[in-house]
């Protein structure tokens, strides 16, 4: 950088030996948008803008075409009839979860069932939840094809190909909508189910000499009294989670039976399939206290773990005022 004097006015003028050291000329916003001298819009000529627009139009068109081709290839490998990745190869895995109904729509209430037996308004939300959930079980017209492919099964006659085994609502006794699911009698029915896993087949505890040590004694006795061919079931046990809860829960009744029969498995996504249910009726639970309950599924290939990382079981609380 060097300085020189203007001969006319004697003022110093700064000159730059290297052009890159020259400070850029400040432009107004209007001149930046449109510069008449250079004929540019936002520092680019119309031809430059046209080239950029054409480039990006071609670039994103090709990108969208490649994305569409990839999606088409992916969809070609998928089907609505069965998942591509199954059992050990899937994210779901091979250990089915256990669920129960009714469960409140209010997430802040968690797994608590709380009502006043003498108050119809207190009972109604719970019975409505069960009515809504059990509607396809009671009304076959709600199923695909009107449930025409449902058949009555037993251990000697499983469902034919393309058919599914019906869940017989008529065997639920007091655990029906007409009886209010016995909520008003302080002996509520809670429905327990296994979550569906495509193509999963249970490994049954059907040998009375090979039952796990931690299995409840009353369940062991029950299995011992069941005919050998009917022991192929996923057994269910519900009991108080802690000693005080076991004292408070009272007698437990399982309707229509204490297990989910083998002829309901595997689940293969045939239209009209309904998950088997067990109605667990708590006949005389203590009132005015919270009872912690654990319902557990028993099969050789159902892994169990309690606590926060719960598997193979479900936790719920019951309080009846």
From TrEMBL:
<keyword id="KW-1133">Transmembrane helix</keyword>
<keyword id="KW-0406">Ion transport</keyword>
<keyword id="KW-1015">Disulfide bond</keyword>
<keyword id="KW-0740">Sodium/potassium transport</keyword>
<keyword id="KW-0739">Sodium transport</keyword>
<keyword id="KW-0812">Transmembrane</keyword>
<dbReference type="InterPro" id="IPR000402">
    <property type="entry name" value="Na/K_ATPase_sub_beta"/>
</dbReference>
<dbReference type="GO" id="GO:0006883">
    <property type="term" value="P:intracellular sodium ion homeostasis"/>
</dbReference>
<keyword id="KW-0735">Signal-anchor</keyword>
<keyword id="KW-0915">Sodium</keyword>
<dbReference type="Pfam" id="PF00287">
    <property type="entry name" value="Na_K-ATPase"/>
</dbReference>
<keyword id="KW-0325">Glycoprotein</keyword>
<dbReference type="GO" id="GO:0036376">
    <property type="term" value="P:sodium ion export across plasma membrane"/>
</dbReference>
<dbReference type="GO" id="GO:0001671">
    <property type="term" value="F:ATPase activator activity"/>
</dbReference>
<dbReference type="InterPro" id="IPR038702">
    <property type="entry name" value="Na/K_ATPase_sub_beta_sf"/>
</dbReference>
<dbReference type="GO" id="GO:1990573">
    <property type="term" value="P:potassium ion import across plasma membrane"/>
</dbReference>
<feature type="transmembrane region" description="Helical">
    <location>
        <begin position="52"/>
        <end position="78"/>
    </location>
</feature>
<keyword id="KW-0472">Membrane</keyword>
<protein>
    <submittedName>
        <fullName>Putative sodium/potassium-transporting atpase subunit beta-2-like isoform x2</fullName>
    </submittedName>
</protein>
<dbReference type="GO" id="GO:0030007">
    <property type="term" value="P:intracellular potassium ion homeostasis"/>
</dbReference>
<keyword id="KW-1003">Cell membrane</keyword>
<keyword id="KW-0813">Transport</keyword>
<keyword id="KW-0633">Potassium transport</keyword>
<dbReference type="GO" id="GO:0005890">
    <property type="term" value="C:sodium:potassium-exchanging ATPase complex"/>
</dbReference>
<comment type="function">
    <text>This is the non-catalytic component of the active enzyme, which catalyzes the hydrolysis of ATP coupled with the exchange of Na(+) and K(+) ions across the plasma membrane. The beta subunit regulates, through assembly of alpha/beta heterodimers, the number of sodium pumps transported to the plasma membrane.</text>
</comment>
<comment type="similarity">
    <text>Belongs to the X(+)/potassium ATPases subunit beta family.</text>
</comment>
<keyword id="KW-0630">Potassium</keyword>
